[in-house]
Each structure stands twice: as C-alpha cells, then as structure tokens.
Amino acid sequence: MAKTKAKTKVKIGRKMNLAELVTLYPQLVNVLMEDYGLHCVSCFAAGFDTLEEGAKIHGYDDRDI
C-alpha cells in the first residue's frame, strides 16, 4: 500500500521568515528573485529576515507588501 504525504497549507504573511518561506515553497525562489528583486531569499540573511523586512530593504513600502 502506497503512503501519501498530507500537505498542510501555510498562509504566507509579511511576518513569515524568508528561510521558512522558501523551505515550504521552493517554487517561490525564482518568483521572488526575478519578479520582485528579493535576492535576499538566497542570502544568509534569509534565516533572520521576515518577508516584510526583506521587502523593505529592497525598497518596498507597506502598501506594496
């Protein structure tokens, strides 16, 4: 009998840690880097920054986030 792995969906929010975000959704790495210029997702700082902090570092304001 084959086992299936249940997927739990996690809501993405501005306070989510970047490393956690790309671990849960690795398909977002290219989108965040290429479409939004958030190259911090592949940086050592990803373990320390939230999506909000990374976006603000790259020039996004609260309305954009």
Automatic annotation (TrEMBL):
Instruction: Give the matching InterPro entries.
Output: CHP03980_redox-disulphide, DUF1858, ScdA-like_N_sf
Q: Which Gene3D superfamilies match?
A: SP0561-like
Domain (DUF1858) spans 14-63
The residues that cross the membrane are none
Recorded protein name is Disulfide oxidoreductase
Say which species the protein is native to.
Candidatus Beckwithbacteria bacterium CG_4_10_14_0_2_um_filter_47_25
Taxonomy of origin reads:
Bacteria, Candidatus Beckwithiibacteriota
